[in-house]
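Researcher: I'm comparing several assemblies side by side, and this is the next one on my list. It has 786 residues spread over two chains. Same procedure as the others: predict the full complex and return the structure.
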Amino acid sequence: MACQSCNCSTEGDTKQGKDGAGLEAIRVVLAGQPNVGKSMLVNAMSGSGRMKVGNFSGVTVEKTEICFEHHCHQFEMVDLPGTYSINGFSKEEKVAHDYLMHESYDVIINVLDATHMQRNLLLTLELLKLNKKMVLALNMADEAAKEGIEIDVNQIEAVIGVPVILVSASTGEGVDALLDRVHEVADSRRRQHSRILYSDPVEEEIDRVAHFFDERGYSYRDLSSRELAMRTLMGDPVIYAALHDHPIMIELQPLIAASLEHIYTHHESKNMDEIKANEYTAVARGIRLETVHCKREKRRGKSLTKRIDDILINKYFGIPIFLFFMWALFQLTFTLGALPMDWIDAGFTAFGDAVGSMISHEGLRSLIVDGIIAGVGAVVLFLPNIIILYIGIALLETTGYMSRVAFLLDGFFHKFGLHGKSFIPLVTGFGCTVPAYMATRTLKSEKDRLITLFILGFMSCGARLPIYVLFAGAFFGPDQAGNVIFAIYIAGALLGLVMAKVLRVVVFKGEDEPFVMEMPKYRLPSFKLIWHTVYQQASGYLKKAGTFILVASMLIWFASTYPKVDAPSELGVNQAKLYELEHSYLGQIGHATEPFFAPLGFDWRMAVALEAGLAAKEVVVSTLGVLYAIGDEVDAESSSLITQLKANVSFASAIAFIVFVMIYLPCLAASMVFAREAGGYKYLLYLFLFTTATAWIFAFAAYHLLN
Amino acid sequence: MKLSELKKGDSAKIIAIDATEDLKRRLRSFGVIKGSELSVETYSLAKKTIEIMVDDTLIGLRAIEAEKVEVEKITEGKN
């Protein structure tokens, strides 16, 4: 991790600290189950520390690294994804497991929810097996106190053998103490042995095997003979590799076979994973019974969470309530977001004009104003949408409502090979595809996320609307246009669902990911955390997507401006524009690709409009304006463009055009975000091929059915 | 009987889980194993998904997954 030493406020000279070791940063890994308040704890610990959000190498699992100082000590912290276990096969679990096994670090902070100790301890028991230095942070201490839960911290320490601290990320209680303990542990030689006891038969066999090792004087690394025996019995491959070449293996083998037989009989199972799970669950239950006491008697009535659930996931009201929330979020995102978008748009236009008036060289002015400034403007334009939507999503996530949404809608979406949570990105897609792609992050399973990403473009975004308005107005008349547009939207959505099913059956084959998910307790949102998420998302979008969008917009500007040709002087202004565009690289591409579009009934002008639409769908209408020689100052209601279209385009071609627009690749900004979210540009290529092929086939069918 | 056959409010004990290793592992990580006690909190429309409570944790699962969990009813729900 690149963490430069920051200045310590109490020490003037950081180069020569009082003790040399103090300069060495303490490397900490945070591990914990989901919904234990890990990210909040990170915030509470690091204060104003530097944070770097990236991905673990090779996978799209978010990795947060933080550098900060505490009592003049440098901390480097890596936040692992929240996982219920580290032995599973999900991407997050593998990432966490590999990091814990192979990376170098000093201390693990295992974060637990003090109000759900038992389940959280299952992960702790797995982490203990790593034999690393560890500190347990029992988060939500304030909540536990409120619920009347008393936790005997000393007793847990005694059983598990690692320091245990009660903390509360939301009040800041215990955070200092936690960091002090981490520091202490990092400096300590090794950790104490744990005194965890398993079931009698297992203990018996551990003793027997440990005794065997003791007698033969066999040891492995710094493991105690008890630990060694346990690992041998549980089939640890590392231990077996070490034992394999050792003579005692001959004596050991029958002993282990007999011991396992005893354990199998006791558990009525020969599956070691299952046996381990049984043992761990029993241990976790034991620790809870021994150390957690509820002072207050269990309330007679239902807990708050259950009472809220009675309303929010009610069989009949649940979905309408959710639809209302979605409607509100959608309205906020695109109605409230439209205001700053107008300002940004107007600001950049004014800025472009002002800068343009200062540059005399025409080519340079065009590059800066039409290329760079317009390109940056297009990137910044989506920012209000992204921010508002993300506030909404962060609210849904941090309160615990998102899991309920999945619960409510999974029945419907699962039929199409999607997940209940896919609903949110899909609905967002009707507004703008850029934030919609980003919203797929709430989907934890890779397959679910990719399928959702691939079909999102079929939800027609707001920018496609002007094209529909133009064509529906031109070819259906004002009384029909509304219905036609509605039908287009519905057709897109249905096509998306059907394609999801197709992708699930053809491309993303195999077993469905199990749904099994925790319905976390309802919690009040933390504004700090929401601000944090939103800030990360927004700056990530600006940095990563922004640069690419900028470069690509400049390319498109270049293609539509060069090579410069002098239009014959007898042409009018509009004709000259058409002439220049036709002879630009973009126009040449349009001509060159005409054969591809000919079977759909498109001429070169429609081809150019579609190709320009790859940059932004807003461009399609203005490009058509230029191409049909009436200037680019047109909008969807322009009657002259409608007349021109009617005169030049057949009904069948028009429908095919609408179909094509409905299905093909979304705008450049969205495409870049897609590549980022899907995990590489190769996916963008797949998306391009997939949407273009689908668009072509459907447009072809539409054209020939109507012709 | 199957977990999916329980009614809202019923509580039961798990006797066996007959599922793929992947699903079993998921359930295990929540402490849903043979011998665990659970109660059925609610169903979604058309009984597509079911919410259960195990060890003070609410868990949602699909009905097709709940079918693979064999349970023994302990107490009947009020409704």
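Model: For your comparison table: Confidence is low (pLDDT under 50) at residues 4-22 of chain A.
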